[in-house]
Amino acid sequence: MRTAALALLLAPGAAAPARAARFIAVPWAGTVPSGHYSLWQFGLYEQKGNKHWRSLNRLDLGLGGGAEFGAFTISPKGKQPDSWINLQWQPVPEGEFLPALSVGVWDALRKAPLFSSRTAGPSPFLAAGKTFKKGSRYAKIGLDLGANRLDGLSGGLDVRFLKGTGAMLEFQPRNLRLPGTDAWDAALYQWFGPHARVRVSRMGGNPMIDGLFAWSFGGAGRSDGRP
Predict the structure, then answer these.
(1) Would residue 53 count as lying in a domain?
(2) In a domain, 227, yes or no
(3) In 3-state terms, what secondary structure has residue 174?
(4) d(C-alpha 177, C-alpha 183), whole Å
(5) Which long-range contacts (CB under 8 A, 24 or more apart) does 189-195 make?
């Protein structure tokens, strides 16, 4: 569903590349480290649509070997919830000079053609991303090429300009947008300690707020998105 696609957002893990595979709504080339997970709760107000709030929930789990498992559920007002299984693998980690590369499929269990320009069904993609760091501050830039919901090119930018504060900007492909919204999304976020974050976003003209809790199964390591 096109209405479900808008809410797949980013997720940190912990320790070294503690950043999962989203900017705001488009893919990022990183994945959650092994043994780490993140839990999300979103509220999206369809200001440019039916004027209702919808609830969104997400889990991201690092499986090891650069692999990530995601489960996502959207609950529009007055409609049945819609759930996705998302898979991503990073065969090429980010190096000093080379970008990270990853491949994935959103809504992987849906029965539909993989490579088309549909607005629903499994959506494969290729993502590339590079991080530029200075102390606790950084800038991440990424580009994606996909099919179905992710048909065409998309990309994003994440800039951490203070120790726990940052901003994001992204361009969504046409099939990922809600009806009546534009292609550009923007967000501001604040970390509260190493494991909790709040973010406010403007999603193609619709306001959204989300809260994130990220941890490891052993309880160790950072989770605040720092590379």
Answers:
(1) yes
(2) no
(3) helix
(4) 7
(5) 189/165, 190/164, 190/165, 191/164, 191/165, 191/224, 191/225, 192/164, 193/224, 194/14, 194/222, 194/223, 194/224, 195/223, 195/224
Domain that holds residue 187: 2-216
Give the per-residue pLDDT at 76.
Answer: 75
Separation between Cα atoms, residue 151 and residue 116, nearest integer Å: 8
Q: For 192-199, what is the mean pLDDT?
A: 91
Closest CA to 117 of 174, 75, 184: 174
Count the domains in the chain.
1
The answer to whether residue 82 is domain-embedded is yes
pLDDT tens digits, 20-32: 557 888 999 999 9
Mean model confidence pLDDT for the chain: 82
Which CATH number is 174's domain given? 2.40.160.40
pTM: 0.81
Give the span between the Cα atoms of 226 and 15, in whole angstroms: 8
Say if 73 falls within a structural domain.
yes
Q: Which residues pair with 83 in a beta bridge?
A: 73
* Winning range, highest mean pLDDT, from 57-71, 105-119, 209-223: 57-71
Kindly give, in sequence order, each residue whose CB lies less than 8 Å from that of residue 88, ignoring residues fewer than 6 positions away.
21, 27, 31, 67, 68, 70, 102, 103, 104, 105
Please check the confidence at residue 13 and state whether its pLDDT lies above 80: no
64 class by beta-carbon count within 10 Å (0-12 exposed, 13-18 middle, 19+ buried): exposed
Beta bridge partners of 167: 159, 188
Is the model's pLDDT at 166 over the cut of 50? yes
Query: Mean pLDDT across the stretch 117-140?
Result: 90
